[in-house]
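Researcher: Here's a chain I'd like modeled. Treat it as a single chain, no partners, no ligands.
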Amino acid sequence: MKSRALTLAILLSNSNYVLADNDDLDEFGEFYGGDQFIEIATGLKTQIHKAPAVASVFTAEQIKAMGAIDIDDVLETVPGLHISRLSDAYQPIYTFRGVHSSYNSQVLMLINGVPITNIFTGNRNNIWGGMPVESIARIEIMRGPGSAVYGADAFAGVINIMTKSSQDIKSNEFSARAGSFNSTHGWMTVSDSIDDLSYSATFESHKTNGPDNIIESDAQSLLDALTSTLDVPTTNASLAPGKINLGAENTDIRLEVLYKDLKVRAGMQRRDNVGSGAGLAEALDPEAKLKSTRINFDINYHGKVDDELSFDTQLAFFKTSSEIKNQYTLYPAGSDSGFDSLGLANALGLPSGIRYPEAVRATPEVFEKHTRLNITGLYSGLTEHAIRFGAGYHLADLYKVKESKNFGIDGNGNPISAVGPLTDVSDTDAVFIRETERSNFYLFAQDVWAFAADWELTAGVRYDDYDDFGSTVNPRLAMVWATSLNLSTKLLYGKAFRAPSFTDLGAKGNPVALGNANLSPEEMETIELVVDYHADNGLGVVWNIYSYEWRDIIIYRPVADAIIPTKVAQNYGRQTAFGTEVEVNWKASDNIALRANIAYTQPENDLTGQNVPFIPEQQFYAQLDWKISNNLSFNLKNNYVSQRKRDKLDPRANIDDYWITDFKLSWSPAELPIELAMIGRNIFDVDAREPSINNNGSVNLPNDLPLAGRNLFGEIRFKF
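Model: Modeled as a single isolated chain. Structure tokens:
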């Protein structure tokens, strides 16, 4: 405790978070200051203090300096953004400003400007498996609505990951890392150019057994306990206490080829032997092994009609899957799956004592492909105007669905045997979702108008038309005032929408979450005030306040008088919030730079009048970068998460606050092409946990979802 207090005292004596854009550390001179540019706010390269958005930027050098291994290590440092976890495979839930949902479909993630949203559930993939950072040149994050530029799901926030080009790779590199949880990670980056032709390639391989945290009690523990209180045969099937299942074997490949104005990019992410976390049904599942293959390919051409009109065209293809290598065990062998413990046998008029001697097993799989065609124009022929406009088309195809299981009803309406081989219900009415597709056509226009000295107005609108749920229009307005040489003031307004996923529209087979074909998109309107101070002496401060209204939230509501407890997706929820964020960065000396940010949010469920559960109402982050000598550097991070409340029906105490402290120590021997580093995460071995959900007061994981304890890694980088 004294060590953590000392760490915090050192960091608190200084300050914050920075948005930097320079590949060279330059004794921190450019690392934390200078003219930083972003594109995420408007699609145009803009100085960040003039951009009509609240945004953060991380370069490859920053990502490396902080010791980030996965993209989540970077995103957790953004003010107002917290990463929670889902029990199934510990999928990340990127919670922007209190906008939280299990599938996290209110956040848009892009790779080189191309969405990687899966239409099945609206997230990035149910078998995400993490994303390593060695192929990343730059990450831009926008907090707040972005549908006027990006369309669907640019709702609470947008994350754009830009991969390394030949210009970003200054020298070829072969590197390796190993450490806790029997983890190994190797990667190689190469680039070259010949006249007008250049290329870059990155290969990464990662393998881990995952943390060995213990789940003390799970969903099956609850079912076992219920049978002991009823006049039915008791069960003792739970595998708890037991370890979470978070192993993985990942491969990432990125390739980019540039010839004059033509750019071609390709990528492959292979996730294999991914563990099921705390279980799909919140019952421990140590044997499940999941896999996913994600392939992206895009062709980009930049052309000029004349000096005043240019255009960009893009054809992009994305293919993704969620597959089962070794079947899900929803409930372990000997479970009654709720037939007795939850009263389902009585409700259905079935005899008690129904058991699953070989466990409740299933293999739900989905396969998708996405094709996008976009054309964007930029016209600068009007004085003081930059007019951006364009159109696009997106075809999303859930082209294959597979499912085998040993429970429920088969395609002929007959009960499925609980023993023996699984029954294949693919291509029958009994499958959990049907194969289908969706098309979307859109138009957009945006004008950045410098209408007076030191004043700039950005106005934009986008029209999206979907063939399944209809059309939507989303505008934006932003006024940016260069109040003084070092001060900018911004007033921002934006509207956004979240498209219903195919699960929302058409899920079946699971009475707990049935789809509804008549859903409308979720909507959000946000207004923000931003003050950005950027001095020449190395000090920068950004302060913002915001308010939003989130309406037509898709939630699953109980169906009255249903024999089996049933919930159906409906546009029913409404949430409002007020919040503020402060970011400070300070280059204290030529060798020391400090960052800090603090975020406060107060979201309210307007239907209940209660504060929104699960999300941290207060967050604090502090970071020290110290260049000890020309060859030795040190990074220290401290992240504080606090004030997370439970749902009003949850009988448990509020979730404990936690501090997580990480470090990286790097040494580059003089005149040698190598770099050695040690990375430590959660170095004080804090028992940090993310909240588990409750179902109408029933809690399957009463002790929440434990995060990794202390873990250490050694790293070597070799340049050639």
